[in-house]
Sequence to fold (444 residues):
Amino acid sequence: MVKRRQNLYEVLNFLGSGQRISAMETNVPPPTSNASLKEMKFFTSPRRRLAQRAALAAPLLLLGIGCASPGDPHPPSLKLPEIVKDLSATRVGDQVRLQWTTPSKTTDGLLIKGPITAEICRTTASAAAAATRKTVCTPVTRVAVQPGPSQAADSLPPALTQDPPQLLLYSIQLLNAHQHTAGPSPAVFAASGAAPPPVEQLHASNIPTGAMLEWKPQPATNSYVELDRLIEGAPATQPKSSANKPTTRLKTQKPQSAASSTPGPAATKLFKSPPPPTEVKLRTPQQVSDPGGTLDRSAQSGVQTGAAYQYTAQRVRSLTLDNHALEIRSLQSPAVALQLRDTFPPQVPTGLAAVPGPSSIDLSWEPVPDADLAGYILYRQPVSSAGSPTGPATRLNSVPTTAPSYRDETAVPGQLYAYRVSAIDNTGNESGPSIAIQDIRREH
Fold:
């Protein structure tokens, strides 16, 4: 490349020297007459041929050099990781737990190579500092990280785990292998102060209206309890009838023909109800006294499918510092498991009445309002005229009757009987018997 440029410069200097090529240098004798001019022959000197070739080659050389010459030089990459943009802080117990996404590229858009160190900065902010967001990074810990989801925890000193609460500002800066950084992330906020006591002795029990959650109450906590419910796995039992299957809804659509706008016949499609969420958060009202328990009514939907739940609990203290709504959470309680089962029978039927006739005894009662009701079972027992049993009670219907009525056509005329009715659900849970009534079939 250097030699090419040198040759070009020599040619350009020669062309630009302003030298003339005389007639002597062309070896052309001066003309004598027009006749002799026709017979004259021209001869070009070597020096002039060189000048002509140089003039023709100059544009090509310039084009070649322009294509091969590099542009402006780029400064070397500093290999600084990009600034973290999604830092979050959560106060749990005596720690502040931080989460963020470590970038995979440098500020130059190159993939990060080599180790990355996250430096956590904490500052106790005054009201003025919080308003201006101008804080000095005070490193409290360093952790080695890799691109992707990252986390760290700052254990607060005893002075910051006591009241009165103060506003804490956190930022994070990423250092490359040479301990250089592009700068700290935008600040996020947390609260110092006393954390509420953890929830102790948490236990869960299955009741007809859902799941009852109880724990050891704490006086004067000025906080609320947040419960986290997770589904442990697939339902333990399969539904026994169509009444236990997930509800469906009907949606009727009238599609139009591609060739005509006339509506076609109605098309009915079945849409299954969405599955229950895998995680549900519950909370008690924030109050001075701890209630020591709460009812998860939404768990009742998992009874028919035999869902298995896992519960954990935290106390949460809400506060506002310099117009920032913050939380201080207790440590999470140990998890407790609850296997939901339908072990609760329907209500006992009431209002049993009998109407005797010559060929049967007709029985009726008030219907039981149970969504899982399978039907009713009738029992009959012979008794004496004094009302004392004279034999065992027998079941009249092998299959539960779905209507709140029954006709007993097998009663012996003249025999006094005591009748009772019970309700049974789809799982097989049977209620207790109703109050007995006595009646006798008339004789012909």
In short: The chain has four domains: 2-68, 88-191, 203-246+276-321+331-339, 353-440. The mean pLDDT is 79. Residues 2-68 form one domain.
